[in-house]
Design a protein that fits this description.
With 129 residues, this protein is of the alpha+beta class. It is built from 3 helices and 9 strands. Strands 5, 6, 7, 8 and 9 form a 5-stranded mixed β-sheet that branches. Strands 1-4-3-2 form a 4-stranded mixed β-sheet.
Length: 129
């Protein structure tokens, strides 16, 4: 099966979140002025849809998770080199994210995590292949 991936997340400040993910290499798509959502693309078939909390709750049919006390998802993105894992997390931290500590050698690959501006947990991974 060939399919695209769409990760949907609520964010407190849509413009600031778009700037954050653009710094990480996501490409922002066109937005409607005053819109409640924004689409970004990382690679051909991986997309991130950011929503205001109200728009996310309406779309999901449920309340928004409090990322200060709970996790509803951890998003992991593969990269081509181990050094790129650390470089991207460093960029995330410079853009306002929070590092989750040093990288981890998992035996089968290397991973390092961070939290974005809204507390959503992400990790970059390199799995040699």
């Amino acid at each position: 099966m060939s399919a695209a991936t769409f990760v949907n997340l609520p964010v407190a400040d849509l413009d600031r979140a778009v700037e954050f993910f653009t710094a990480l290499g996501f490409t922002a798509g066109p937005r409607q002025p005053g819109g409640d959502s924004a689409q970004l693309t990382l690679g051909g078939a991986t997309h991130l849809i950011l929503h205001t909390p109200a728009a996310f709750a309406a779309f999901a049919g449920a309340g928004v998770c409090d990322t200060a006390t709970s996790r509803e998802v951890i998003v992991g993105l593969g990269v081509d080199r181990r050094e790129r894992v650390d470089a991207l997390v460093d960029v995330a931290v410079l853009a306002g994210g929070t590092s989750l500590g040093p990288g981890q050698d998992l035996g089968f690959g290397y991973m390092r995590g961070f939290r974005d501006l809204d507390g959503h947990q992400w990790s970059f991974l390199h799995v040699p292949g």
